[in-house]
Amino acid sequence: MTSATLRHSVWILRGNPLTAVAAAGVALFVLIAIFGPWIVPYDPVVSNVSEALQPPSAAHLAGTDQLGRDVFSRLIVAARLDLAIAVSAVGISFVIGAVVGAFCGYAGGKLDRGVGRFVDVMMAFPLFVLAMAMVAALGNRIENIVIATAIINLPFYIRFARAEVNVRRNVGWVEAARACGESHFSVVLRFLLPNILPAMAVQISLNLGWAILNAAGLSFIGLGVKPPTPEWGIMVAEGARFISTGRWWLVAFPGLALMMAVLCFNLLGDGMRDILDPRMRT
Fold first, then answer.
1. What does the sequence similarity comment in the record state about its family (predicted)?
2. R_g over Cα of the chain
């Protein structure tokens, strides 16, 4: 990061402190995902029926569930799984989507139109329903959740890369690269893709939050991660049965964790848009 970019980022953060808060929140979630399993006070999968459905207390900060498992420990450990699913799925869809979209936008013609129509057909379906169908067909294993989430994220990156490269494919510096003997393959990978990556970073941040919500939604309806694995969607689904009995903590804490994770990634995406937008550099 250059000094000018750093100064511009600091100026944006001063004018929009929510972006700084969101960045701190994302960093906190990452640290929890990395170190959480070693700092939790209880084993997240060991049952203790004698302490079932205990409200939040000094011994159990977020209470216990119907099997006496510590909710706080399960929340912390679940952060690693949910974040790993989101990062893996978004990473796969970003790499494939950016490359496919960039080559389509650069080549144009029948290839561009064909891929464009395919993406339009995909986006015509409710994407969560499409993910449900794929996981139901493949089986509710973690790797299948990652694959399904990656596939339904592909259209965003293909369309974005295709549009951005289509605008840039005939600009002066691309023509200069071709005149210097660079192959079409090299022009796309060495010149066009790096040029559009900053703008795509905004989409990555937004999709990370959506991928976490998608994985939790699949688990909530029974098509995601299998119990007793700690996962936020499973915890909300299990706690929903006890809302009418006043055990609010079983839903409130995992629901709050989901909301904060998605909110932080969305706010970070908005802040990155402001930082990377050339029109803001005035």
1. Belongs to the binding-protein-dependent transport system permease family.
2. 22
Q: Within a 10 A sphere around the Cβ of 178, how many other Cβ atoms?
A: 16
Please enumerate in sequence order all residues whose Cβ is within 8 A of that of 138, keeping only pairs 6 or more positions apart, or say none. Answer: 144, 147, 148
Peptide bond into 228 cis (omega under 30): yes
CA distance 199 to 36: 32
139 in helix, strand or coil?
Answer: coil
For 32-74, how does the pLDDT look when each residue is reduced to its tens digit (9 = 90+)?
A: 999 988 889 899 988 988 888 999 999 899 999 999 999 999 9
| CA–CA dist 203, 160 (Å, integer) | 9
pLDDT tens per residue across span 70-116: 999 999 999 999 999 999 999 999 999 999 999 988 887 888 888 88
Angle, vertex CA 197, rays to CA 196 and CA 199, nearest 5 = 70
Give the integer Cα–Cα distance in Å for 274 and 9. Answer: 9
Instruction: State both tokens at 209.
Output: 């939050």
Bridge partner residues of 166 (DSSP): none
Confidence label for 259 from pLDDT (cuts 50, 70 and 90)? very high
Spatial separation of the C-alpha atoms in residues 254 and 273, rounded to whole Å: 29
User: How many residues belong to the chain?
Assistant: 282
Q: Give CA–CA dist 224/29, Å, rounded.
A: 21
**Single pTM value for the model:** 0.87
pLDDT for position 9: 60
Nearest to 219, CA basis, from 204, 232, 201, 205: 232
Cα separations in angstroms, 225 against 47, 49, 157, 212, 213: 19, 23, 26, 12, 13
